[in-house]
Amino acid sequence: MIKKNSPIPIYYQIVERIQKQIANGDLQPGDALPSEREFAEKYHISRMTVRQALTQLENDGYIYRIRGKGTFISEHKIEQTLPGLTSFTEDMTARGLKPGSHLLHFEIIPATEQIAKMLRISEYGPVYEIKRIRLADHVPMALETNYISANLIKGFTEDIVNQSIYAYMEEQLGLKIEHATQTIESSVANETEAKMLEIKPGAPIMLIQRNTFLQDGTPVELVKSTYRADRYKFAIQLRRKN
Ligand code: GLP
């Protein structure tokens, strides 16, 4: 029941109630929610309060709205455990989703100062610039731009980079990808990102930069990614020092 004189705001009680129904499976991805008016009548609250709750749930990626059709429960977020150095292809396959890519750009360019420094190659040295939309079951999840030294990695073709870059480097070239450093920042989608990720401009995204190294310490890639925050979350194990 909604408690009108609780210190917890009414809109937030609605938010928690819906989150709970999603967590225990009463509400499944794709299920339609009642309209604002029906909600308001059911709980004897104002439509503005209902709207506030739905906006919060939408911003947090629990629901989505289709104009003229209604409000629906979103797919569950894909959870990636942070310490594992995995590829997109492995992440999706592990979840039973079909990995895919849409290649936007594939070119050898001269390394800028920043790219050269990270890849430890000379400035203007040849690097592949690979831009891909990464898909899970044909749904866009992320935009990724990889910079990889063309002197280190030979033989990339459009066909190869449209599939798994890690699989090619490990299985075809026998390289040992070993560790990476990664930063994650929150941001909002601009017009171009929104269009490619099929989200609204201003929707939350995560900017991820990964610097990946081979076993012998050679930097192998610099990757700048934009992940949909409504479909992706990261999990990390924390251990208290004793
Ligand atoms: C993830 C990482 C990228 C990495 C990519 C390789 O998406 N964020 O840094 O380049 O995996 O994926 P794949 O082997 O599927 O091309």
SSE order and pairing:
Elements: H1 10-23, E1 32-33, H2 36-43, H3 47-59, E2 63-66, E3 70-73, E4 78-81, H4 88-94, E5 99-110, H5 113-119, E6 126-136, E7 139-149, H6 158-161, H7 165-172, E8 177-188, H8 191-197, E9 204-214, E10 219-228, E11 232-235
Parallel strand pairs: 4-11
Antiparallel strand pairs: 1-3, 2-3, 5-6, 6-7, 7-10, 8-9, 9-10
The structure holds 2-amino-2-deoxy-6-O-phosphono-alpha-D-glucopyranose.
2-amino-2-deoxy-6-O-phosphono-alpha-D-glucopyranose is lined by residues 87-89, 144, 146, 164-167, 208, 210, 221, 223, 225.
Summarize the structure.
With 242 residues, the protein is an alpha+beta fold. It is 28% helix and 35% strand. 2-amino-2-deoxy-6-O-phosphono-alpha-D-glucopyranose is lined by residues 87-89, 144, 146, 164-167, 208, 210, 221, 223, 225.
Q: How would you describe what is shown here?
A:
This protein is an alpha+beta fold and about 240 residues long. The protein has 2 domains: about 10-75, Arc Repressor Mutant, subunit A (Orthogonal Bundle), CATH 1.10.10.10; about 80-235, 3-Layer(aba) Sandwich (Chorismate lyase). It is about 30% helix and about 35% strand. It is built from 8 helices and 11 strands. It has helices spanning about 10-25, 35-45, 45-60, 90-95, 115-120, 160, 165-170, 190-195; strands spanning about 30-35, 65, 70-75, 80, 100-110, 125-135, 140-150, 175-190, 205-215, 220-230, 230-235. The strands form 3 sheets. A 6-stranded antiparallel sheet has the order 5-6-7-10-9-8. Strands 1-3-2 form a 3-stranded antiparallel sheet. A hairpin with a 4-residue loop joins strand 9 and strand 10. The radius of gyration is 22 Å and the shape is elongated. The model has no long low-confidence stretch (mean pLDDT about 90). Bound molecules: 2-amino-2-deoxy-6-O-phosphono-alpha-D-glucopyranose.
